[in-house]
Amino acid sequence: MAGSAKTEKFDNKTIQWINDRLPIFSMMDNEYGKFPTPRNFNYFWNFGAIAMAMLGIMIVTGVFLAMNYVPHGSMAFESVERMSRDVNYGWLLRYTHMNGGSFFFIAVYIHIFRGLFYGSYKKPRELVWIFGVVIMLLMMATAFMGYALPWSQMSGWGVTVITSLFSAVPLVGDGLVTWLWGGFSIDSPTLNRFYALHFLLPFIICAVVFVHVWALHVTGSNNPTGVEPKSEKDTIPFSPYYTTKDSFGTVVFLTVFMAMVFFAPLLLTEPDHFRQFDPMQTPSHIVPEWYFLPFYAILRAFTLDISIPFTHIVLLSAKLQGVLAMFGSILLLLFLPWIDTSPVRSARYRPVYKWCLLLLVLAMVALGYAGAKPPEGAAVWFGRAGTFYYFLHFFVIVPWLGKHEKTLPLPKSIHEEVED
Amino acid sequence: MKKAILFSVLLLTLSPPAFAAGEMPAQHAHEQAELPKQHWPHKGIFGTYDKAALQRGFQVYKEVCSACHAMKFLSYRNLEDLGYTPDQVKAVAAQDAVTDGPNDDGEMFERPALPSDHFKPPFKNDKAARAANNGALPPDMSLLVKAREGGEDYIFGVLTGFEDAPAGLEMQPGMNYNKYFPGRQIAMAKPLADGQVTTSDGTAASLEQAARDVTQFLAWASEPRLEQRKQTGVKVILFLLAFAGIMYGAKRKIWSKLH
Fold first, then answer.
1. Rounded to two decimals, what is the model's pTM?
2. What domain count does chain A have?
């Protein structure tokens, strides 16, 4: 990049002056202007840009909310309520941020599904994928801590359930939980550290997003055929083609998001989110936000301690199994580029994988249902079946298909496929 | 691999089943009656509050509910949203005496409330509230509609759901039967009755009328920016739809050069 900077010519002298010293305009032109991009993206490819827009919206609304928020156990709930009543457009900031979390996850989950369907994680884009998984983990941590900040019944008890998971760690578990809480119960110190981290992590996400996009711009984007561009006929410059297409997609997404903010802002919110946290009173049913439900169901799918026969020595408690499975279910994605050995990227040409991936989506829906319900009756079996398929998919089906699936013939090039 | 693990789990396990991580005690069966759905004028995309109902509802709150229930997120000035003039609000506020201070002598003193003051709570603190209510704590009502499953229908249901306990149901001492309250036993005695509240136009409100009015007042209290939100929303959505249309046109025009 730096080498070519001197040769760039701009009509505007100020821009030229800056660019000779810091070639930021050359960089933008190379990476977002003439950047050669496969010509055959479908609308699934909008969701990277949409996720980026959501990150921006979350940071901007979050900073303004922070100006009115009091991170203290006895004042947090009240400060959030006051800002939605007495701060000009405070209600808008709050509802946008609150629902923005959900829509950020919607965008990112579709983005991840796109990656799974079209094999975007495969060589040479392994690092793009891995940074993506890191972003998702950071988002989950950020969302979880943000959920704590209104200090409602759902906040406090959600924190109780999730932080208590760490007590499953052998030997040091209880000490670890005390350390996380900053005390022997959930109180202001817990809230304060969550607030500090909730403010910090989005900027770390920004940094990882930068690396994610950087790595992407080294390899170039995947596309619906999964066939690499071979000639200039296969690509078009990013601008104006994808700047306009991404803008259109983003505005449509924002329209749906805003319809929710203005007309159904509490659709995804439990009533217990409007009661102040009371450590002495457990709500009858604690549920995390919808985007955590599948993982919450994996956590709860394990109900049997593994013990040494004829003794009461527990080798692996059900709780620890659940915790390991829940974290494992996300961490295994880091290894997906090597778990899936199929040379064909796009599921368009993988007739069996395509259906297995659809089953995975159904398993996630079943898990989401199981996570939302009290652990009894059918919900337990949905949870177990979903968990079983989730791990079966990644540990058995995907590796097996990589070796044995009969794939369909690939198009010779992108432009040939487009012109058909 | 997975199957092997499951199999070994079955073989190894002899200890009684443990609770899974994060598992909570099972919910009690819903023994209370199903809430009937009511029509509320502020629901729907274009729904707005019925200001006359809000004023009548405020009167019910003031005459009945406020004896036990605080509304800590409301100030007297907020009553202007209900259609009261600033002078009327000043007069309403002045009926309550609040503690202020300390003054220059270091003493706390009483003065009539101002529009900028918060609603005066009926009890000094939660303990005083419990002491006066047979151990039960009357919840703050400023967020009640949003903080209860069923919202407006639930509040209306509880207010109209007091009945004689069915034979065979053992009531706890001091509790009252309410068919819509979770568990059907509520500490609050039946708060409203036919003709209990006389509205400003001189007619005695029926129980149902008073319950409907106060529910709408409480809905407003929990979501006072609802009208502003919906009005802004209509403009924002119209703008975004037009913007999306323009962006679609621009995208089509630019992409048409490709083929």
1. 0.92
2. 2
